[in-house]
Amino acid sequence: MKLFKNQHILFWLFLAMLILPNLFMFFTESTGTLTRVVNILLPLGAYWLAMTLKAKPGHMFWWLFFFHFLAAFQIVLLYLFGESPIAVDMFLNVITTNPTEVGELLSQLLPSVIFVIVVYGTGIALSIVSIRNRATLREAFRHNQRIIGGAVLAVGLVLLGVNCVKDKHFVIQDDIFPVNGTYNFLLAFERAYQSANYHNTSAGFKHDAVLTRRDSVPEVYVLVIGETLFADHMSHYGYDRPTTPHLQGDYIARSLGYYRDAITMSNTTHKSVPLLLTPVASQGDYDSLYCERGLISAFEEAGFKTSFYSNQRRNGSFIDFLGCEAQDIHFIKDSLPLTANPYDEQLVTLLDRRLKAQSTQPLLIVLHCYGSHFEYRDRYPAQRQVFGDTDYPTAERKYRQQLVNAYDNTVVYADYVLSRVMATLHASGRRAVMLYTSDHGEDIFDDSRGRFLHASPIPTYYQLRVPFIAWATDSWRQAHPAQWQTLAGNSQKPISTNMVMYHTLLDMAGISTRLLKPDLALGNAAFQPVQRLYVNDHNELRALDNCGLKQLDIDQFNRHRLQFP
């Protein structure tokens, strides 16, 4: 203990804690070598100088506490994703993810969590020791370290200038930690403020929606939004396990259109779902989300009754805002304790109840599932388990088969839930349509990168490929044969789900709005595939070959004969 009362030893220890994530990132990042060298020297020089400003290094530790927080956060994310700085979406996930999800995730990140608690918790304790200690850093020591720190900073600045000239892709707020972490933290704060102010900025917005069909028969449109379902784990998409027996059954298969080359534009729920429920993606400006209302409002303007049923918890995000535009709203978990785990088939019960209560009015019903979100074993009832051995003490590569077994059981259950939605619509005797897609996919230690989960700052093929399925009752297809044939005929074309959903649903329902684009509606003869984009962490729309995908991902696109870019 006497050793750690030595202020000079504490000086070096605190400096090491500050620069630790940068040292890790030298080996994890795919940026150029010079960028990674600058990412060490520039922050190191700045920290070095800062640590000389106080006679007791513990005082400076507290002044730099925000950077220790960033360092701890960064190390945990490197453990989870293997690369990349703290993303804006990671900060937003902290405030939009419910406590149950946080607990499930942290339980699988214990090694990294324990590591940062030990390192930075020790730092906090030792900083208190430093502050209470009467001894101080010698003035000569501080003077010498100021010179050395300044020299390191100067070298870092020179190399920074050289790198700016040599590397056209280098951006300091993207590639230098903690500049990027700080920048993204401020961006997250700005977006949180914009989200909180959404009700004011979108007030008065109108789609100018009009129902153009002369046919007065009230129709039903159901949008089912899945969670974390990767299309490659559906036997309907060629998977070698029988995970979708209902979708491949004779009756459903005859009236089903599925799009084999569908990808999402975001690997995060809080961004992908709003993109599905608005025309934002097709406008090319993500910020229009903050001042426009969504798909549900458009249907209401056209005279439809609307419902939004969710098996996810409210989190104050745009999913809540857009869902709550409906006239009939039900969040299953609202009245349940945090530990409660209702299954998605409860959404079908709500659907059936709504159909019987509004049997003579046109309806739009949105069902937001909890789907395949980790923890996988909690997403399906025991009697629906098909694949055994789902015992994984922790989410590690060595337990991949057990994780895949549990994940595939969630897919089997999603297939069952979808079959019940279709059966309920068929039993209602109504002209009805169901569209299904997932917000994003999932990494499950699929390749040499060892990636797990989703929402990483840099996406992967496994997070992008999602199912897109259309189904209609016999009566709807008979009433609109040309539209159905067009929709089925477009099923081999490459699509971005978030780009086409708004336009496809409105067009199928015969609703015209000033934002409707027929060439993005899958059931319209004017439909044309467009360049597929990805919305990155800074809400920029990037082409697939400019969003960070690696050769391993491109190989998967080619292997499955999907369009890239």
**What are the segments in which pLDDT stays under 50 over at least 5 consecutive residues?**
none
CATH topology of the largest domain: Alkaline Phosphatase, subunit A
CATH C-level label of the largest domain: Alpha Beta
Structural class: alpha/beta
Total count of helical runs of at least 4 residues: 23
Mean pLDDT: 94
Per CATH, the architecture of the largest domain is 3-Layer(aba) Sandwich
Task: Characterise the protein shown here.
By secondary structure, this protein is α/β, with parallel strands linked by helices. It has two domains: 3-194, no CATH class; 224-559, Alkaline Phosphatase, subunit A, CATH 3.40.720.10. Helices cover 48% and strands 10% of the residues. The protein has 23 helices and 15 strands. It has helices spanning 7-28, 33-51, 57-63, 65-81, 88-96, 99-107, 110-132, 139-166, 172-175, 179-196, 198-201, 250-254, 269-276, 280-283, 295-301, 318-323, 345-357, 400-428, 461-464, 474-479, 481-489, 497-508, 551-559, and strands at residues 210-211, 220-226, 256-258, 262-263, 305-310, 328-331, 363-368, 432-438, 443-444, 452-453, 468-472, 495-496, 511-512, 533-535, 541-543. The strands form five sheets. The protein has a seven-stranded mixed sheet, sandwiched between helices. Strands 1-13 form a two-stranded antiparallel ribbon. A hairpin with a 5-residue loop joins β14 (533-535) and β15. It is elongated. The mean pLDDT is 94.
Write out key terms for the chains shown.
alpha/beta, Alkaline Phosphatase, subunit A, two-stranded antiparallel ribbon, 23 helices
